[in-house]
Automatic annotation (TrEMBL):
<dbReference type="InterPro" id="IPR017900">
    <property type="entry name" value="4Fe4S_Fe_S_CS"/>
</dbReference>
<feature type="domain" description="4Fe-4S ferredoxin-type">
    <location>
        <begin position="220"/>
        <end position="249"/>
    </location>
</feature>
<keyword id="KW-0411">Iron-sulfur</keyword>
<dbReference type="GO" id="GO:0051539">
    <property type="term" value="F:4 iron, 4 sulfur cluster binding"/>
</dbReference>
<dbReference type="Pfam" id="PF04015">
    <property type="entry name" value="DUF362"/>
</dbReference>
<dbReference type="InterPro" id="IPR007160">
    <property type="entry name" value="DUF362"/>
</dbReference>
<dbReference type="InterPro" id="IPR017896">
    <property type="entry name" value="4Fe4S_Fe-S-bd"/>
</dbReference>
<dbReference type="GO" id="GO:0046872">
    <property type="term" value="F:metal ion binding"/>
</dbReference>
<protein>
    <submittedName>
        <fullName>DUF362 domain-containing protein</fullName>
    </submittedName>
</protein>
<dbReference type="InterPro" id="IPR050157">
    <property type="entry name" value="PSI_iron-sulfur_center"/>
</dbReference>
<keyword id="KW-0479">Metal-binding</keyword>
<feature type="domain" description="4Fe-4S ferredoxin-type">
    <location>
        <begin position="191"/>
        <end position="219"/>
    </location>
</feature>
<keyword id="KW-0408">Iron</keyword>
<keyword id="KW-0004">4Fe-4S</keyword>
Amino acid sequence: MSKVFFASARIKKWKYEDSMPGKLERLLKEMDLFRYFPPKEWVAVKTHFGSEGAHRIVRPVFIRKVVESLKKAGAKPFITDTVRIKGLDYLEVANQHGLNHLSMGAPVVIADGLYGNDNVMVKAGEILGEIAVASLIHDVPAMVVCSHVKGHINSGYAGAIKNIAMGTVSGTHRHCGWKCGRGAMHAVGEGAFVWDSEKCAFCFQCEEVCPLDCVSFENDTFTAQDERCWRCGRCTRVCPEGALSLPGDDTLFMKSLAEASQAVLSTFKPGKVVYINFLTEIQPECDCMPASEVPVIQDLGILVSDDIVAIEQASIDLLLKAKPLPASLAEDAKITAGQDILMALHNKNYTLQVEEAERLGLGSRKYEMIEIV
């Protein structure tokens, strides 16, 4: 049975040791990072840089504590993510959010190069076949995965599995394009866009939100450049009239997330990856959207484990016990205490990704929760 260490967001004493940064320090000490990362070993601290306007990422103060703990263990950490927009622009977004060398005490780099096509093809299973893993992630010997737990337009729930599957795989490949990158997961089982011209208000939000600039309205008709579009679904999410949809197969998508995670983790030796899930500012959408909604669930705390399946299951179990917050999307949807909040918001059977990850041998859904008080 895997161990999952937990620190609640609630405090009992007004002193640093009981603060969230203080508790994170204690969690990492309890994990004994020396066991995982020997002196001078390079360690990737994988997090999400966010987007311009989307500020509810893992707070820089927490990433800084991870860096400091790794340095105390003698390791050489750096902070990284893969390209979602143009690389230089993405580094500027990271800088705006407080993720830079000066504030973090460690370099901040793009894992798949400034153009997002620096990667290595890795075998990925029967659904994906193979996937383009960012070369830096592929080559580095160790990793700490810092995940902001939240909702997600496609996966319903986003934690460590989504962070690895979508965040350490490149958006594109030099020769086979998005079909070998994270777009391969988005496009699994999906059909063509369905646009209802009678419902369309021509607000052009779908065009504005597209990270690849492949949506346009030519002759007042919705057009998506099929060869460039990686089916991220942002355009359908922002449509206020419900005029745009992209039919898909949720089961295949969830399984593909687990497959991609397995492919990425296969590039590491056993015991070289540690996971930290931050159940804070739990908003309904991904941090890659151009804005952040108010949280739908109150801050719950921080989880740490070396088992990706166990930490995901533990995170979900905590979310299932939580109550919806007022004045949020949860209240708009009339979600009440006792309901599965993320399921009610997205109608996605999100536990499939965790179940599939367990089936693939990435970990166990059975865990022992050890709370740091």
